[in-house]
Amino acid sequence: MIDIEDQLTLDERSSVDFILALRKRWSDTVYPALAEEYAATGPLAGTVDGATDRMRELSLYPWYSHLERVQQKMLWKTVGEAVVNRGDSLREQLDEVPGAPKGRLVLDPGLELPGWYTDYDIHIQPGSFYSDDLSGYVYELGARIVMLRDNDGYKFHRLFTETALPETPGATRIVDIGCGFGKSTRPLVGRYPGAEVIGIDLAAPGLRLAHAEAEAEGAAITYLQADGRATGLEDGSCDVVTGTMVLHEMPTEAVREIVAEAARLLKPGGTMSFLEFQTTGDPFRDATIYEHAERNNEPFFRHLFATDLTGVCAEAGLSDAHWTPFDERREGKRPDGWGDRREWHFPWAVLTAAKPEK
Ligand SMILES: C[S@@+](CC[C@H](N)C(=O)[O-])C[C@H]1O[C@@H](n2cnc3c(N)ncnc32)[C@H](O)[C@@H]1O
């Protein structure tokens, strides 16, 4: 597989490195300075709205908020150009079908994409995930930088797979909903040897890239273009239904439908586990998380945070639903919370629930 980063010109490399450094300094220097100014200049607000109002009056806020938005736009411009500059060879790579594929790619060109999915360029990525064959490559390269290079080699997704998904000897089918370009799906193959691993997504470009990468690695994965709310798979056929970073991208009613679909797909005793986000309980930090989402065109974070997801699981017939914080740097699932972190970070958390045996 072509790794675009191996081919970057000096100019492109400099841009990528600059944006990465800018994001790191925004997170580990500008955000803590904003937090210090907030703490030093008045009473700490007791609510997110109160903290938002106070934050917007701080002298550092214009810088902080401007850098947050601008770095994201610079990111897509840089990675978008890097991908388009190699568009012909990248498209060819997607078209190359291996002689004896180990997995499958099942696309559905007639699949209707929901309005809430097409109304926004999510993450401000021009054209979002679905509009062009190259969108998967753009998202893949952009995500390396958004994760501050901490997810190179899919370290972060492997941590999720290893610390948050159950040991299930003899598992026969595992489903990853909202699999994107397969970053969350590939670690499942090693975790559940012998099981059929299925990645599902609305967007064909990511699935095409996921399939090409899985074949290049020799991983037997089925990628299906479908809506995670109605996968078309059989009732009670899955040991684990999982997903990473997908539920916050849809309105509450759609989240309910995904959870109901997961409950339908699970075998008795099976596990549902989604890596998502939760509020931290610190009004100032949470105010910055709401703002981060809105500045990145992610309008449904608010819906996720306002929804009682453990209650949604119970409505769907799942038991023992609970959230556990997740530390993406080294420990993975971390029941004690995120710890004291100075830098801005996503409040990762895992939602787990079980399908009762009877
Ligand atoms: C932020 S990406 C995460 C991708 C991948 N799980 C990862 O961790 O890299 C969210 C993905 O969910 C997909 N998605 C959103 N809503 C969906 C739905 N209702 N059914 C299937 N996929 C969906 C999007 O197309 C996108 O690829």
Give a description of the structure.
There is one protein chain. With 358 residues, the protein is α/β, with parallel strands linked by helices. The protein has helices spanning 10-40, 48-56, 61-84, 87-95, 115-118, 135-146, 155-164, 186-191, 204-217, 252-265, 283-295, 301-306, 309-315, and strands spanning 104-106, 173-177, 196-201, 221-225, 238-244, 266-277, 319-327, 332-333, 348-354. It folds into two domains: 4-102 and 114-124, no CATH class; 153-354, Vaccinia Virus protein VP39 (Rossmann fold, 3-Layer(aba) Sandwich). Strands 1-4-3-2-5-6-9-7-8 form a nine-stranded mixed β-sheet. The structure holds S-adenosylmethionine. Keywords: Methyltransferase, Transferase. Residues 174-270 form the Methyltransferase domain.
Number of strands: 9
CATH architecture of the largest domain: 3-Layer(aba) Sandwich
| Number of separate domains | 2
The main β sheet shows up as: 9 strands, mixed
Low-confidence residue ranges: none
Radius of gyration (Å) = 20 Å
Strand order of the largest sheet: 1-4-3-2-5-6-9-7-8
Task: Quickly count the helices.
Answer: 13
Looking at this structure, what is the CATH superfamily of the largest domain?
Answer: Vaccinia Virus protein VP39
Strand content: 15-25%
Q: State the separation between the terminal residues, measured CA to CA.
A: 46 Å
Whole-number mean pLDDT: 95
Bound compounds: S-adenosylmethionine
Shape: globular
Output the CATH topology of the largest domain.
Rossmann fold
Structural class determined from secondary elements: alpha/beta
H and E order: HHHHEHHHEHEHEEHEHHHEEE
The residue fraction in helices comes out at: 40-55%
Q: Can you identify the CATH class of the largest domain?
A: Alpha Beta
GO molecular function, one term: methyltransferase activity
Keywords: Methyltransferase, Transferase
Protein name: SAM-dependent methyltransferase
InterPro entries: Methyltransf_25, Methyltransf_Superfamily, SAM-dependent_MTases_sf
